[in-house]
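fyi for ur records
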Amino acid sequence: MARIYVASLSDYNAGHLLGKWIDLDGKDADDVQDEIAAMLRTSKHPNVRVRCPDCEHDRDSQWCIPCGGYGTVPSAEEWAIHDYDDCPDMGENPSLEALLEQVRLIEEHGDAWEAYTECVGIKYATESGFEDARAGEADSELEWCEQFLDDCGTLSKIPENLRLYFDTERYLRDMKYGGDVSFEEVNGTVYAFWNH
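which gave:
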């Protein structure tokens, strides 16, 4: 289950810990922002006033206990993500939309997406780029290369009696050092990605 630990910075700076683990599965950015706002309103070191969530900002709600009819309540303003669980670390202040998109892509593509983000960097990872770059997977880089050579028919063009002289390891090394393909291993599987 993907989740983040969000902390109140005014409390943190005052030497107190105030934060909350927020589950991301099935939520949109507004849902996550609402949970963050609720946590910030419990701050012991508020530095702003925000609209009261209980009376829905109706100035005529004289009987609203949290705001006393004023329509606003004290809250901390700034927050940061201090920990990630089962989702990519995108720093302390990522766009919530971008973070939730990464969670969706991990759910959809699994370890292959994680490998892709390791190859290109999470800031540059796009779903269309992933589809274009994905070159397959195998138990090892050499196994992937052998399958690639078989799939594209390169070895079938070599006479049977000469195939054992073909150096697959050297061919693979040239592909890697020539910048044609990159590999990332995730959970024991090697994922290949084209670099162009």
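The CA atoms of residues 76 and 153 lie 63 Å apart. thats all i got for now
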